[in-house]
Design brief:
The chain is of the alpha+beta class and about 375 residues long. The protein is built from nine helices and 19 strands. A hairpin with a 2-residue loop joins strand 3 and strand 4.
Amino acid sequence: MEQVRIAEQKDKLDFRKLWQICFGDSDTFCDWFFENRFCPAYSVCLEQEGEIRSCMQAFPYDILIRKKAVKGVMLCGVSTHPNHRKKGYMGKIFSYSMEMLQKKGFAVAVHTPAVLESYFSFGHETVADACYLTAKEIPFYEKREDVFFLEGEERKKAYPCYVKNMSCYSGILDRTEQDFMLKMDDYGADGGLCLAYGIDSIEAYACFYCTETELICLEAVGEDKALAHVIFGMLAYGEGKSLSIKLPPNTPLELPFGEKRVLPKGVMGLCSISLLLESLGLESEAAFQLTDHVVKENNGCFLLDGKKVDKQPAFSITAGKFLPVLVGYRTLEEQREYADIYDEKGFREIGEKLPKIDCYIIDEY
């Protein structure tokens, strides 16, 4: 018998087993992750014949969208056992999860999957880019005396730097200090290091892993000049190794070797259009018609303040194609081909209220 359901605490071991089968993370990391990150009340699984064959996890966060705190979740660990793929399990747990999150009062769900296109059919669309500095081999760099490692409670000193430099991005997690330290512990659980720069306070920091063959930096934060100190200081620990550094998409930083590319990295799904619009605090005379094949409560005609109305809409569009506009990743004009327009003036009025802004999702969970 097949059952899609909300996870329970007793499912933790089965979730962990499936995670390691699908993602291959170390025992050390999984020990930490499932002790500190498993939130069954927000997670979903598909069980058949007493076996959890597909699952996804979610963690509640406030997410900054157009500089407004929006109640959301971050999804991760979306996985199906290799023996049971291509059976439609993922579609079933996504539909169940999005409906469940809507009922729990969440507006959006974000995640940074390896293959973004896998989630488009579920109404989850690209809403953020990231810049990657990569190289096959790092040349020699001398160790710098103006950078230093942060360990333990010292890492809290980097939190104001995160708030100052990340709060300008739409889609970013509005981390509390507790969330920030949990993320630092997350990196440290599998040998991650935190290098910093600053004279009177932390002006930039980078969280990275340095293995025998590669240097991978997943979080680098700070104003450009200060961040350059940290990045070039970090390179001193990677001579001869391959390199990957993730940065905000609008960064001007470059390296004298390797490659710089800006790539789509981050998708979002709509749990509640009413709650999202209410959180953004927008207004309009014109209305729009939204269609959503995943969350039925999102279907209808709405004003930009989130109120459902009975009036002629200026245009009709799917939830997946409108969400990048609400976040600021696309303009409404750029999504014109996906809309059925009935009133050009109303279409332009709503579009003017939703200008494009910088979007970035730094976290994976």
